[in-house]
Amino acid sequence: MKDPKLRTSLLLQLVENAQEGIVVAEKEGHDTILIYVNPAFERLTGYPSEEILYQDCRFLQGDDTEQQAIKVIRNAIDDSAPVRTILKNYRKDGSIFWNELSVTPYFDEVDQLTYFIGIQKDVTEEVTLQEALDEANQKIARLESEIQSLKK
């Protein structure tokens, strides 16, 4: 496909139909504002694009802004470095979801701007299962310790 317009059209269709949330943001002062979100992001978060475009995506953290993952993301954005982490986010309805977020910087030499491409995947089930496994392992360790102390 050599026609640039056809390539651009196909790329947009692919992004619009992706299963994962895809966003494009640009740095504006201390904020990283959303300039594009795909339909999967809208479904994942419950926020329609017209409500959230041109805002910093911090709204997804609600009041939970002290997460270590947020600091990791901010540092990577400040350094224009790629990053992948898992953080707790909140949907528009207030429900929690665990978001595996991958952020990749892109420097546009024409605009002299750095854009950030974010890929978001709901990993709530995986995080919940890992938490349950960790809790079960702790309980097993306590029980084994109790058994050992009874044998003495």
Task: Pick out its properties.
elongated; 5 helices; alpha+beta; single chain; five-stranded antiparallel sheet; 152 residues
Explain the overall architecture.
Helix content is 41%, strand content 30%. The protein is built from five helices and five strands; from the N terminus they run H-E-E-H-H-H-E-E-E-H.
The span between the termini is 76 Å
What do the pLDDT scores average to?
Answer: 92
Write the element-wise H/E pattern from the N-terminal end onward.
HEEHHHEEEH
Number of strands: 5
Task: List the SSEs and their pairings.
Elements: H1 4-16, E1 21-28, E2 31-37, H2 39-45, H3 49-52, H4 68-78, E3 83-90, E4 96-108, E5 113-122, H5 124-151
Antiparallel strand pairs: 1-2, 1-5, 3-4, 4-5
State the gist of this model.
By secondary structure, the chain is of the alpha+beta class. 41% of the residues lie in helices and 30% in strands.
